[in-house]
Each structure stands twice: as C-alpha cells, then as structure tokens.
Amino acid sequence: MDRHIPFAGLHNFRDLGGYSTADGLRVRPGRLYRSDSLGKLTPGTPDWDRFLSLGVGAVIDLRYPWEIDARGRIPEHPSFAYHNLSIEHRPYDQAALTADVDPGPYLAERFMEVAEDGTEEIRRALEVIADAARSDTPLVFHCASGKDRTGEIAALVLTLLGVDEPTVVEDFSLTELATPALLAEWSARNEGRTPTWPGFARAPEAVMRLFLAALKDRYGSVENYVEKSLSLDADALAATLRTHLLEAPPADRPPLTFRRATDADAPLLVRLRDTAALWQLARGIDQWQPGEKDEAHFHTRVREGEVWLAHADGHLAGAYELWWTDPAAWGPRPADAGYIHRLMTVPHLAPPGTGRTLLTHAESRIEAASRPYSRLDCLTTNPRLRAYYESAGYTAVGEQQAKTDGTGSPYAVTLLEKRLT
Q: Of the candidates 83, 89, 162, which has an alpha carbon nearest to the alpha carbon of residue 126?
C-alpha cells in the first residue's frame, strides 16, 4: 500500500518510484531506493535475500567512517559496488538535544551545513546515481536512520527529476511512519533509555520546507546550487536522470475491487490515514495529523458502521468509512442518510480517479440501505476539498461551528449533501 518495503531489521527502506513530474511523467519504480543503515543486513537471512532480490547494483553509504566502524556496513557481495561518501562534516548528537530545540529550523540549518561542507561527497553521490541510471542499475543510498543525510540527497535528485516541492517535502516526512521503530531500535541499543530530544527520529515537513527555502535564498534554485557549489552541469545531470529514471505512467490502470474491512485491517487503515495526513501537511493542508486515529478507532467503525477497502491489481488503493448517524456534525436526524468519513487514497500510487470511485461505491451502499441522501463534511478552512466534493455533485447546506470528535478542540466544518437517485 505504500513505498516502504518491508524488512524485519530495516525500518525506512523506500522505493522512490511512482512520484509524478510536472510534465506528466513518473519516477520509474524499482530503480532508486533510500534506506536506513544497511549495516543491519546479515547474509543468510530473509532480509538479505529480499535485498538481493531487488537487483541493486550500487550502494551509497552516507555515514561517517566511524559510524561504519561502530555499526557495520552492508556485507560485501559481487552483485553491487559499495561507495562510502560521508556528506556530513560536523557531527552532532540529536538524541542528546534539549526539548526546547525546534526540529524545523535546527535541522534545516544542519542541512545547509551539509550542503556547503559536503560538496565533494555530494557531487560524487550524484555522479554515482547518474552512472547507475545510465546503466539501468538499481541503486540505494542510506545513512543511519534514512532521514536527514538520505533525505537531503533524495531532495536534490527528485528536484532534478522535476518532482514538485510539496512531493519532495512529503517524501522527507514519510520517515514519520518509521519513527516508532527507529525509536525502539535506539532504546534497545541504549539500555532502554529514551532520547532527551522529543524530535529524535522525527521528520516534520517544516525541516525540508525550510531547508529548500534557505537553499533557494542562497543560490536561487537547486539547479544553481548544483552548478555553483558542486561544479556540475545541472542541465546535463538533470537530462541524464530524466532520460533514464522517468517513464510515462501506465496507459491501462487496473479496475478497483472492494472488500469490507475487518478488525484485522485496523493497522493497515491507521497507516493509510497517517500517510494521507503527511501528504496533506506537505501541501499546507492543516486537516489531519499523523497519529490522531489509532486502531481502536477503526475497530469501532468496523463494529458500528462500515469500512471499505479498495484494491487495484492486488495493492491497496484507498478506503472510506460509512456511518449511519453523525450527531456531532449533523445533530439528531431521521434515518435518511449515510455519512461518508475518511475518504482516503494511497498518495501517488492509487489509480487516477480512485477518490471519485470510492465516493460512488459509498453512495451505492447508502442507496442499498434505502436512504436517499449521502452526507459528508470538511473543514471550512479547506476550500480545495469542498470544491472537490461539489464537483462530485454535493451541495453545501450549512456549517457546524463546533464539531468535536473527542480528540481535540472543537472545529468548524462545512456540511455537504447529495440527493441520490
């Protein structure tokens, strides 16, 4: 359902494939990966076999040599070349930072230090990535957690490929899905202690947004940084990467199939919602926050209403909740409607039109229950979402100024309704 590839010992191994560019192309899947430390891989294990099955031909390790001495490097194997390019030159201990340190500006400043200190290593990393692209060889780059140094290289490459800034920011923030596992791993290495810094292993979107703003303020653009600081021909590099790492999206998209969710699907639904929340935050949409809905929420929705999953070619594409009452938003009402909540699609990977297909399926369920109205709500501060629902035939019929779901302060929502045939 997402771009994290499951490993037992790796928590942040991701495929950069599937991101769209401004000219309608997409990054080829299975060609460019980012990860936390591959030093955790061990030959003879399922993780090692899974890694080798990806056909990786080049590995870039962005860590310091002393980190490699302490934690190990990926085992040698004839199928890939190994490059240690330590792009960070001023070490610091994130776990020991104090709680008053704001992750956004602090890490953005560290990223700028890396961009200016590590020019030789960053240049070489981009050259290795370009060489792998030319030879159609899958490549993975990594640091310790697969977040900061790895995120910086990913941001440069995705920008040169023509991926828009919100998606670059989103890609950085997806480490948030791995944060609990990264924290548990750190604690296990440190006698059960908790890092002093609450921002440890976190990847708030503000970090990448502030870094890209600072880079552009100083150099004008990522391309100018590549030209002026890295002494590379940015146009030629971008052309090489685009020629070999981009493709046209598939012309034929598989149809969606639906099944009703069960309690066993709760972890999947939590992850889907958190992924959708990160997509929103990267685009300045302050509607959902990761971690707001836990498995208990979805257990309740499965029990008291309906939750449906949509799949495309065996992969999760989206989901929605269907309620039969919604007094928090609509007040007491007769049994004349179904209430659609948490309409979610898998960012970048769901077929086009998945959201509209989910709406249509939900409406068919409401009609099957002999109820003439489909109702939903959205934050009054989200005109983009309101316009989406209006384009699907919904009409704004009022506002609820103090909706509450029991998890935070009351908030205002626009109420939308559609008369079903």
A: 83
Do the Cβ atoms of 155 and 167 come closer than 8 Å?
no
pLDDT confidence band for 405 (50 / 70 / 90): low
Q: Which amino acid is at 307?
A: V
Q: What value, to the nearest 5°, has the Cα angle with vertex 385 and ends 382 and 386?
A: 85
Give me the mean pLDDT over the 27-53 stretch. 98
The mean of the pLDDT values for the chain is 95
Looking at residue 21, the DSSP 8-state letter turns out to be B
Instruction: Please write down the long-range contacts of 188-197, taking CB distance under 8 Å and 24 or more positions apart.
Output: 190/95, 195/94, 195/95, 195/96, 196/95, 196/96, 196/97, 196/98, 196/99, 197/94, 197/95, 197/96, 197/97, 197/98, 197/99, 197/101
| Cα–Cα distance, 285 to 382 (Å, whole number) | 7
In 135-243, DSSP assigns E strands to: 139-142
Under 8 Å between Cβ of 10 and 47? yes
Residues 6+ apart with CB under 8 A from 164: 21, 22
* Neighbour count for residue 142 (Cβ, 10 Å): 25
Among 375, 379, 349, which Cα is nearest to 362's?
375
Dihedral sign for Cα 289, 290, 294, 299, please: positive
As a whole number of angstroms, the distance between CA 94 and CA 190 comes to: 14
pTM over 0.85: yes
CA-based end-to-end distance of the chain: 33
Amino acid identity for residue 130 in this structure? A
Domains contained in the chain, CATH given: 14-247 (3.90.190.10), 256-419 (3.40.630.30)
Find all residues with CB under 8 Å of 175, minimum gap 6, and list them: 12, 145, 146, 147, 151, 182, 201, 202, 203
Q: Which long-range contacts (CB under 8 A, 24 or more apart) does 99-102 make?
A: 99/196, 99/197, 99/198, 101/197, 101/199, 102/199
Those residues with Cβ within 8 angstroms of residue 91's Cβ, 6 or more apart along the chain or in another chain? 64
Q: What is the tens place of the pLDDT at every residue in 159-205?
A: 999 999 999 999 999 999 999 999 999 999 999 999 999 999 999 99
124 conformational bin, left if phi > 0, alpha if psi -120 to 50, beta if neither = alpha
CB 275 within 8 A of CB 347: yes
